Amino acid sequence: MMIRWSPYFASLAIAILVFCGCGRKGELYTFSRMQIGTLINITVIADTPERGVRASNAAFSEIARVESLMSPKRAGSDIVSINNSAWKAPVHISGETYALMRKSIAISEQTDGAFDITFASVGKLWQLANPSFVPPDSAVVKKRLFLVNFRNIKLDDAAHTVMFKHKGIQIGLGGIAKGHAVGLAAAALRREGVRASIIDAGGDLIVHGTKFGNTWRVGLRHPRNDEILLVFTAHDGDAIVTSGDYERYKIVKGVRYHHILDPHTGFPAKGLISATVVCSDPIDADAYATALFVMGGVRAREFTKKHPELRVILIDEGMKISASKALKKRITPLEKVAIEWF
Q1: Cα angle value 212/313/241 (rounded, 5°)
Q2: Residues linked to residue 198 through DSSP beta bridges, in sequence order
Q3: What digits encode the pLDDT tens for the residues 30-55?
Q4: Judging by beta carbons within 10 Å of its beta carbon (0-12, 13-18, 19+), is residue 317 exposed, middle or buried?
Q5: Which terminus of the chain is more exposed, N or C, with fewer CB under 10 A?
Q6: Parallel, antiparallel, or unpaired: how do β-strands 38-46 and 27-35 relate?
Q7: Which strands sit side by side in the sheet containing 331-333, from one edge to the other?
Q8: SS3 assignment, position 121
Q9: Residue 335: what pLDDT?
Q10: Which helix (H) or strand (E) segment is 135 a member of?
């Protein structure tokens, strides 16, 4: 389905600012579908509508294929097979899912467990979609917390099998599979010959080329209202991912409970309300946005200083903004806000 952009078209976390140019080659086309639990918007610059349609269909097909492999709910997916049976015997899975699980564990090791796909072992206790949601009792969470540990996963590289050390372990690739899917979708667009593109998958963004010779401009949503907080230029090849406590949440007795769980506590992570990562790899951007959010401001800044390939924007619970110096010339605040550069 093709849609028309408003001047500020906001997803859950990112807005894409689209302006028309003169003397341009190709036209701007935008297509949208609901996939992987969010609205996917694909904007392309193509020579003909037919090429735009063909390219977007190829991209959506890649996302659908990844969803069929890695959905935690779709019958027959690798993740459902693992969660149902890996506690009993090794489960053979596709090479694609296996490689992403191996990557996930590597990031878990690097982040000291701030990113951990076994979070799903307690994740099912947090039924945020339930209209009558009540936070789980801390004793119930604590009882299951031993299951949340990436070291409980045994991978066999030769056989491409997965096995769990304990019954009750569950995994979810929600913090990394979307980045993988968006990266493959972007590759499909390039193969189909579009001049430039930008994919917005509910907070995961990937950019290709320029907008009629100008850089794309994207906006970061204010974590507590629907306004745009700041704008920054997105370069060719940028993957931009934001994790925030305002995407899925419930407020109970004045306390905000959100979907990003701290694997060390089993409860929603505290300290930050938004973490944005800009880098060249959409998989890394997706996973590290989650990890940095879980780490909180101090640890996230320390980690990022050791990994200059990650450029970040962090917003803490007091609305204090800090960002990588490498983004300084690319950021334009839309409000009178102070930014601490590090």
Answers
A1: 60
A2: 43, 207
A3: 999 999 999 999 999 999 999 999 99
A4: middle
A5: N
A6: antiparallel
A7: 9-10, 14-17, 216-221, 228-234, 331-333
A8: helix
A9: 78
A10: none
Place of tokens 């189909």: 192
Q: Single out the residue of 31, 35, 76, 110 nearest to residue 284, CA to CA.
A: 110
Phi, psi (degrees; rounded to nearest 5) at 326: -65, -15
Q: pLDDT tens-digit profile of 116-175?
A: 999 999 999 999 999 999 999 999 999 999 999 999 999 999 999 999 999 999 999 999
CA 57, CA 2: separation in Å to the nearest integer? 12
The pTM score is: 0.92
In angstroms, rounded to a whole number, what is the distance separating the alpha carbons of residues 245 and 200? 19
Across the chain, the runs of DSSP E, i.e. the strands, are 9-10, 14-17, 27-35, 38-46, 91-92, 153-156, 161-164, 196-201, 204-208, 216-221, 228-234, 239-244, 249-252, 255-258, 272-279, 311-316, 321-323, 331-333, 339-341
Show the CA angle centred on residue 207, arms to residues 309 and 244, nearest 5°: 70
Instruction: Provide the angle, in degrees to the nearest 10, between the axes of the packed helices 49-70 and 177-191.
Output: 150
Q: In degrees, to the nearest 5, what angle opens at C-alpha 22 toward C-alphas 19 and 24?
A: 95
| Average per-residue pLDDT for the chain | 93
The rounded distance, in Å, linking the Cα atoms of 83 and 232 is 40
Angstrom distance (rounded) from CA 242 to CA 314: 10
Which residue type is seen at 203? G
**What DSSP line would sit under 284-340, residue for residue?**
HHHHHHHHHHHH-HHHHHHHHHH-TT-EEEEEETT--EEE-GGGGGGEEESSS--EE
pLDDT of residue 24: 66
pLDDT in tens, 68-115: 999 999 999 999 999 999 999 999 999 999 999 999 999 999 999 999
230 — pLDDT class (breaks 50, 70, 90): very high
- The neighbouring-strand residues paired with 34 are 39
Q: Could you give the CA distance from residue 199 to residue 277 in angstroms, rounded to a whole number? A: 16
